[in-house]
Amino acid sequence: MRKSIIKTIVLSALLALPGIAKSQTFTGITSEQNAQNTPEGWTAVELPQMPAITSANTFNIKDYGASTSAADNTKAIQKALDAVPTTGGMVVIPAGTWMFGSTDQMTSKTEVLSIKSKTVLHLCAGATLKLVEYGKAPNNKTIFIGCKNRKQNDIIIEGEGETSIIDGQGTRWWKARDNKETFNPGAMIRFEQGSRFMVRNIKIQNTPGVNLTVSNSGKASHATIHDVTIYNPASDTKTEQPSHNTDGISIWGHHVNIYDCFISTGDDNVVCDDNAQ
């Protein structure tokens, strides 16, 4: 079923409920500090604590071997992510289409791309991070973009608007489900354990399964998600391949602030699971 949220504010502080170049510049979190939208009496959602981003701690994936002509850039992108020091920094994905996600390119057993604490992953305008086709990417609940060793803090994934895209090439995956093939994709983005996460100013589309998940059994908290477009075909569409189980944002933790997003998927747009207490 198609369901949409347009310019909607969702605040899920669940514990409080009853029951470089200009195109590569990190803009800080001032706007988020001004847009907490926290109801009176609720605890504010904590924001990522990031260092000053300079040319010294900015890493362009092209400098680590990534190429728009490459069949897979997983190792190159991971090298750039690994280059970020413990004090923090930013990894830049320039304009162009960058393939990633082959199982044989993974350096982690738990996620395709592993992001550590105090990292900004920045997609420039015109940048598309595209998952490789069905059959080459892991199909065993492996997270596509996630926290290194599943537990990190202070991570930002951001773009420069709707031309900054993460594309899951989900059509063949959804056909596999219709054909009764083994179908077990992980989330496109998942913050499994830790605190203070942010996703902003990007478009996520055609994911094989869930688009964005916050937490696992309440082990992650304090996430801010805004100005994000999430699109997957409706499960009952007749004009294109229907998508299945493509939740927009799945919340399993507490203190999650979602606002100014457009979400239209083949399942729930925003879902709060039982572990979101």
Automatic annotation (TrEMBL):
InterPro entries xref list: GH28_Enzymes (IPR051801), Glyco_hydro_28 (IPR000743), Pectin_lyas_fold (IPR012334), Pectin_lyase_fold/virulence (IPR011050)
GO biological processes: carbohydrate metabolic process
The keyword Hydrolase appears for this protein: yes
Gene3D superfamilies on file: Single-stranded right-handed beta-helix, Pectin lyase-like
Signal peptide residues on this chain, from the entry's feature table: 1-23
One Gene Ontology term of the molecular function aspect: polygalacturonase activity
Keywords recorded for this protein, A-Z: Glycosidase, Hydrolase, Signal
Record family assignment: Belongs to the glycosyl hydrolase 28 family.
Name of this protein: Pectate lyase superfamily protein domain-containing protein
Organism, scientific name: Segatella hominis
Lineage of the organism: Bacteria, Pseudomonadati, Bacteroidota, Bacteroidia, Bacteroidales
